[in-house]
Amino acid sequence: MSFSERLRELDGHAQAELVRTGELSRGDLLRAAIERIERLDGSLGSVAVTSFDRALAQADEPDGPHPEERGPLHGVPFLLKDLGPTVAGMEATMGSRFLKGFVPAQGSELTDRFEAAGLRVLGKARTAEFGVLPTTENTAQGATVNPWDHARSAGGSSGGSAAAVAAGLVPVAHANDAGGSIRIPASNCGVFGLKPTRARTPLGPAVGDLMNGLAAEHVVSRSVRDSAAVLDAISGPAPGDPYWAPPVAAGTFARAVAEGPGRRLRIAFSTRAGSGGRLDPACASAVREAAALCAELGHEVVEAEPAVAFTDLVEPFLVLWAAGVSSAISSFALLSGRTPEPGQFEELTWELYEQGRTLSAAGYLLAVSTLQRAARGLAGFYEDESGGGGERPGRGSRRGYDVLLGPVTSEPAPPLGTFSVGTPRQQLTRAVEFCHETPLANLTGQPAMSVPLHWTEAGLPVGVHATGRFGDEATLFALAAQLEQARPWAHRLPGPGHPRMETRSC
């Protein structure tokens, strides 16, 4: 096995440790990742834009006088999703023909934070056009395939990032999530993906709020500890942000991973059908097995579900979705000096753009207030009746749940082309059915994650969804680390003949 191939199995912490001990240089790590991208991505289609020379030039820069202050991911190869944060001088297409060749002059706060943490951007990962669909098959660049089955979707809209991490091209990659776009591809590709609490990470300087807070920025990764370390590095408001998430009670997310839950959690699980009225048996099995594992680990596990369901909120959610797509296209039209025309976009994207342009302010605010009422109702599922974290004695007192387990999607990774069949409205309906209840966490702003605990008999990964209290990513990270230790997954790599590839169900 080659040196580059051995690095495929290592998470970012382990790769950075090789640099800290002097076994490898930062340049060695980057050149190995570049070799993997050039060798493997031709059949995968995960990378949209490359910037290898820029990353290698950074690797040659001196580290400065205080090497002890370097973060745990210093020198680690990294991909940005080609949607959202920008790099000055690097093409930004948002997965669309409309922006082909557009090179922004300004970078983003989030990019600066990634690079300040020592992550080295090798390029950008493919995305669904403007993040519209839960698959990454844009017509501008082509499809990103699932590393475990090239006839199936890698998920979306962060499918390029998840596929690259699953295939071992890089150990961690940027992703964002306004309706499941971190967690869905993480589930499809068998990697870890956590959507943070609303406003935990910055969106600026160009944007202060996206879709009334639906969108969140973070990463997908091979390991829980990498995810926690990145969130520690990028968390916190930037100057001028309209609002921000509450402070981290655990101190750091890395500490939560290292220490574990430290108490018996109260965990609910649900396998109710989503908006399509069905749930694939493999997805239901994944949830039940995860619930059983949590019980084995000593947690209190109860079959229960909140009264609020995404099925009842699809229409107001789609109002925000159309408004967000329309706003994004209009913003990039101003930045690029281009005029949007229907032939430059996929049919569904253009329909959402047009719908967003015709929305009234009153209709938009009505959708926002509807979703906010639902968010308050759902929050009660996680909070004690006393209003805090403790028990309240007396009749009717109830202890809230720490975590809710459920399916990420209504089925495992679907075949490529699934979401391009029929009219734009039929495509959107199919996407909503596939997303199951996952967008609820975007509507409420709660943290949620996909944990790769289950594989089907055919070798497809199926993630388990876990939602936590608002502001409490620490509990999710602690539980995820406990699950990772009990049922490790980072050693799994797709590819014929790989000595550690496994296809049996956990």
Written account of the structure:
With 506 residues, the protein is of the alpha/beta class. Helices cover 36% and strands 14% of the residues. The protein has 16 helices and 15 strands. The strands form 3 sheets. Strands 1-3-2-8-10-9-14-15-13-11-12 form an 11-stranded mixed sheet, with helices on both faces. A two-stranded antiparallel ribbon has the order 4-5. A hairpin with a 5-residue loop joins strand 14 and strand 15. Helix 3 runs antiparallel to helix 4 and helix 6 runs parallel beside helix 7. The C terminus is likely disordered.
What are its keywords?
alpha/beta; 506 residues; eleven-stranded mixed β-sheet
Could you tell me the strand content as a percent range?
5-15%
Number of distinct beta strands: 15
Largest sheet: 11 strands, mixed
Mean pLDDT across every amino acid position: 92
What does this entry show, briefly?
This protein is α/β, with parallel strands linked by helices.
Secondary structure: elements and pairs:
Blueprint: H1 3-7, H2 12-20, H3 26-44, E1 47-50, H4 52-59, E2 77-81, H5 109-116, E3 120-125, E4 137-138, E5 142-143, E6 145-146, E7 149-153, H6 159-166, E8 172-177, H7 183-189, E9 192-195, E10 216-221, H8 224-234, H9 253-259, E11 266-269, H10 281-296, E12 300-303, H11 314-336, H12 347-358, H13 361-379, E13 403-407, H14 424-435, H15 440-444, E14 448-455, E15 461-468, H16 473-486
Helix pairs in contact: 3-4, 6-7, 8-9, 9-16, 11-12, 11-13, 12-14
